[in-house]
Amino acid sequence: MDGASNMGHDVLIFIDTETGGTNPNKHSLLSIGCAVWNSRLGIVDSMEVLLKSEKYILTQEAIRINKFSKDHHEKSALHGRQVIRRFLEFCRRYTSDGLIELAGHNTQFDVAFIKRLFADNHRSFSKNFSHRIVDTYSILRFLVDSGQIDPSVTSSTQAFRYFDIRVDGRHTAVGDAVATANLYGSMLRLIRRNSL
């Protein structure tokens, strides 16, 4: 879809990151994935960009989950400023009017790594992105607490299974971003059905 049509306030940019650990002040950001979700059309576009670092700081757990290989990673990885430019250009194709509104699952984690990327490259996060962030975990918790879904559904993996969402590329940033956008759409449909 041509982003020049500018979908305005009907758009959320679902994000996910793959990282070298859980500490944005220590561990490496490896990739950012995005899925553009439109309230009328669903997912209309997606992309992933990999970040090249001078030194990769990763935990053994992160290497296992991400199946990280430096040689493979650096075949398509970009430097920090290039990653930021690509990320913003992609988002602006669909949200040129005002601040970009992000969404995701446990989104604070991903945003913390992205904020660090922006700070390290002397770019302002707050001038580009809204402080309002949609988090599918909060919605999931609401659905459990209101008795609309089974109490055992407490993680994204369980939610994807519960709503029968196929994840292409689990533990890739773009695969998880697309799956999370699909989860958001599924939860909206459930709430609408239950409110009839």
Question: Could you describe the 3D structure shown?
Answer:
With 196 residues, the chain is an alpha/beta fold. Helices cover 39% and strands 20% of the residues. The chain has a five-stranded mixed sheet with strand order 3-2-1-4-5, sandwiched between helices. It is globular and about 55 Å long. The model has no long low-confidence stretch (mean pLDDT 93).
Which properties best describe this structure?
single chain, 196 residues, alpha/beta, 5 strands, 39% helix, globular
Q: How are the SSEs placed, and which strands pair?
A:
Blueprint: E1 11-19, E2 29-38, E3 42-50, H1 60-66, H2 70-73, H3 80-92, E4 100-104, H4 107-120, E5 129-135, H5 136-145, H6 156-162, H7 173-194
Parallel strand pairs: 1-4, 4-5
Antiparallel strand pairs: 1-2, 2-3
Helix pairs in contact: 5-7
Number of beta strands: 5
pLDDT average, as an integer?
Answer: 93
Query: Main beta sheet: strand number and arrangement?
Result: 5 strands, mixed
- What best-fitting shape do the alpha-carbon axes yield? globular
Helix content: 25-40%
Helix-strand pattern, N to C? EEEHHHEHEHHH
User: Low-confidence parts, pLDDT < 50 over ≥5 residues?
Assistant: none
> What strand line-up does the widest sheet have?
3-2-1-4-5
Radius of gyration: 17 Å
By secondary-structure content and strand pairing, the structural class works out as: alpha/beta
Strand content: 15-25%
**Tally of helical runs:** 7
Distance from first to last alpha carbon: 32 Å
Compact description:
The protein is α/β, with parallel strands linked by helices and 196 residues long.
